[in-house]
Amino acid sequence: MKLPRKQAVVLRDAIAQWKQDGVIKEAQAATLAATIEVQYFDWRKLAKYSFWIALFSIVSSVSAALSDRFIRDLLEILFKAPAAIKCAALSLVAGGLFHWGLARRAEAPGKVYRNEAIFFLGILATAGAISQLGIMLDTGSGHFSLMLLLSFLVYAALGIRLESNLIWIFALASLGSWMGTETGYLSGWGAYYLGMNYPLRFVLFGGLLTACALSLETHPLGQRFFRSTLAMGLLYLFIALWIMSIFGNYGDFPSWGRVKQIELFHWSILFAAVAGWAVYYGLRHDNDITKGFGLTFLGINLYTRFFELFWNSLHKAVFFALLAASFWYIGSKAETIWNLGKEDEARKPTDGK
User: Fold this and answer.
1) Rounded CA gap, 154 and 352, in Å?
2) Which of 106, 176, 315, 320 has its Cβ near the most Cβ atoms within 10 Å?
3) Selection from 196, 290, 285 nearest residue 247 by Cα
4) CA proximity to 207, closest of 170, 177, 241
């Protein structure tokens, strides 16, 4: 059995503990330990990133083709059809891709990334169909956020029906886009809505989405999409908090430029407090997602404040020397922790004798 190094260490520890507790005999423990083979190259990640690069290349290829004048003129001739026909055609393409992806998943469930790549192409076709529907129904009101709400409903239904976290992530992305554009429309595309600029609105949106994810962790339906919903909620929340810690609740650059950065320090404290809560929650509930987000954005907060406070006041040589020293320290600690895992793995054959 080929496993990544960390998983191999955990499994060997478990076998050693079972042998020590008398759950399995020494001969059986040795047999089980001998079947474990460390896989030093992560082919799973290579497959994942290769399919993402392939999809990005497909999108880039289509974009490059559309930018060519000859191809663009040819497409205009070929596709001079009403929006309703385009919408129906793209809907059929999307339906075919989703059906293909579903059949492929039933046939080869282990080929996760290939199946999700097919679903991604279906997502793009669905987005095109919804955009054509928007063109067809457009009355000139500028209320196009309704199409984003429709995108959320369609993607959410597809994600639940096909049990695809990828489609569910696009549903949540559409929901966030709808919230931003809808509040912009209601405010007349002004800087504020109910006294909140865009980042502050997304702080509330991200916090609400995170709370929903945590409350639905034990729900039968919510468990399927718990991790992706939590990750999207925390991403909305922390990116918005980071922007708030820099710009505060200001809607334009001239207003922001007239205030001192120290006047926005309370947003930095809020940012750090939320990151601290995420780390605490992750440690208490053994949740790697909240712990990872908390630690990452706590570091981003600290380094952002470092740049704000010392970029102009320190000599650049001293500034970068301090920056190098801090990263050297972090790297040294990370390397020490990594080597501890290697030492545990190296001791396993000796312990098994």
Assistant:
1) 55
2) 176
3) 196
4) 241
